[in-house]
Design goal:
The chain is an all-beta fold. Helix content is 1%, strand content 35%. The protein is built from 1 helix and 27 strands. A hairpin with a 2-residue loop joins strand 20 and strand 21. The longest helix is centred in the first third of the chain and has 5 residues. The two termini are 19 Å apart.
């Protein structure tokens, strides 16, 4: 089989447009890129414009997809873009922008207007029980809209982690506690509990009764010996109860997985932890005491280099192996408590041994450069391809 095949009219490109070379191999498991959101790349790098538009992005780091929405943390432009309905064509403009006064502006805190409606490097995004939730990471807070906005430049209804909507200091300008945040990059709702990857404090916070109210301290502090602790790996050697950079959370009502990007691994708890307890599974490392980066190979399907995101849906697991410029997919969650079996599929690389940015070539529909965020919903996979300033929507061909 040829390494590349030519496919026409992929992802909504107009009929008669230039054919697009897409990698064809036996490693993708039927996953194909369908829709390209963000800057186009005609024969070169996907560069954003000097001024934003509702169709282009700059270093997006988070994405959410379901049957009704696509939400993107357009991190470099300090804003969130919302599509009502799943886009069907390349470069389709977003319907709503939050964090900026309009689709042509950028800058921290709404270009200097203030943090009440502005953002500073938003990352995690999701719609949970009809509410839009955004991790406004460099403002050290979580923003919540009680309904997904249908108009742009709408202020959030709830702010978590700060005293009020105008405060933006790390740990609420005080000591670290169970009610404060420092670079919260990701979050998830699992088993009725709300979990936040409080990355700068090197811990995961959990609230037992769902999304908390302002100022409510977490019921669970995972990864630190006390609510005031914030050292990497608890100030000790890496182990099953510590994090370096916990960045994203995924799972089910029975299992939680945390992408510990700085230790190049995924830690797992089953059942969900009720207190600061050690993980019972690790993926990406041979054991709980290892934190190897594997920068030069051999690259395999069971090792990571800075895994910044993970998504578990319907028993299928996807991991953004960010610095290896690929997505690894397991058709079933590995059952081994340590090390785990290799992934079943790899996206954006010709094989499990390759890891080049855009395969050391031009940007293509199925290449990646530092994929930073992902979301899986059934047979759809949305990837925040940060280095290429775009989001790609992939779909699995079940034939």
């Amino acid at each position: 089989m040829s390494r590349y095949t030519v496919r026409h009219n992929v992802g909504g490109r107009p009929a008669g447009s230039a054919p697009v070379a897409v990698l064809a191999d036996d490693h993708s498991g039927g996953w194909m890129p369908r829709v390209w959101l963000g800057a186009p790349a005609p024969g070169g790098l996907a560069l954003p414009p000097a001024s934003p538009t509702m169709a282009w992005m700059y270093s997006p780091r988070g994405v959410f997809i379901d049957d009704r929405h696509v939400v993107v943390a357009d991190s470099g432009n300090h804003r969130v873009l919302i599509w009502h309905g799943v886009p069907q064509s390349d470069e389709q403009p977003a319907d709503v922008v939050l964090g900026q006064p309009h689709g042509g502006s950028e800058g921290r805190a709404a270009g200097g207007r203030g943090p009440e409606r502005g953002m500073n490097l938003p990352t995690g995004v999701a719609v949970i029980d009809g509410r839009l939730i955004v991790a406004d990471a460099w403002h050290h807070r979580i923003l919540i809209w009680d309904e997904v906005p249908t108009q742009s430049d709408v202020a959030p209804d709830v702010v978590l982690g700060q005293r009020d909507a105008s405060s933006v200091e790390p740990n609420a300008d005080g000591p670290c506690s169970a009610a404060t945040l420092y670079w919260p990059f990701g979050f998830a709702m699992l088993g009725g509990r709300f979990w936040v990857a409080d990355t700068g404090n090197r811990r995961v916070l959990g609230w037992l009764d769902g999304v908390p109210g302002p100022g409510q301290p977490a019921d669970i502090v995972l990864g630190q010996p006390t609510a005031g602790g914030r050292e990497e790996n608890r100030g000790e050697a890496v182990g099953p109860a510590s994090f370096r950079w916990p960045h994203a959370i995924t799972g089910t009502a029975e299992r939680m997985l945390v992408a510990d990007a700085g230790d190049h691994r995924l830690l797992g708890w089953s059942p969900l932890p009720d207190a600061d307890t050690p993980a019972d599974s690790v993926l990406g490392q041979p054991d709980f005491a290892s934190a190897n980066e594997w920068p030069y190979g051999p690259h395999t399907g069971d090792r990571f280099r800075f895994p910044y995101a993970a998504a578990l849906d319907g028993g299928r697991l996807a991991v953004a192996d960010t610095a290896n410029n690929r997505i690894l997919i397991w058709d079933e969650l590995p059952g081994e408590p340590r090390g785990g079996r290799p992934a079943d599929h790899v996206l954006a690389q010709p094989d499990f041994g390759s890891n080049g940015e855009n395969r050391w070539a031009l940007v293509g529909r199925d290449t990646l450069c530092w994929p930073y965020g992902l979301c899986m919903h059934g047979d759809r996979l949305a990837v925040a391809d940060s280095g290429n300033n775009r989001v790609m929507l992939w779909e699995r061909d079940r034939r």
